Structure prediction request, 130 residues.
Amino acid sequence: MGRKKDREEAFKLIYQTEINKEDFQEQLDYYFSENDLPPASRDYIADLVAGVNLRIAEIDDCIVGYLASSWKIDRISRVDLAILRLGYYEIKYRDDVPKGAAINEAVDLAKKYGSETSGKFVNGILANIS
Prediction:
């Protein structure tokens, strides 16, 4: 599929996990049973989704540190939060993804799926994290 598309699919699964409050492994298993993907795509998507879900408290604590003092994490849209979590994970844990690429891809996802201001918001938070 390619990293861009894999990342987008991982974002959708991270978002779905947040909205449905379902077990991420069950969602991954179902997704992979319904989609025939090359091994590299499966591995990348699984790593992103599992990595975010297993480190969600760490990720959210870091994100909160970059919010304006009047903001709390529950004020962030679920779309933006899923993108921020994904971007954080790639920046901190994927050595094969350049930090700039992780930020740019996250901003692209925010522009595609978020609100009018999501791209700038995601860029500002992730640029500070990196």
The two ends are 27 Å apart (CA to CA).
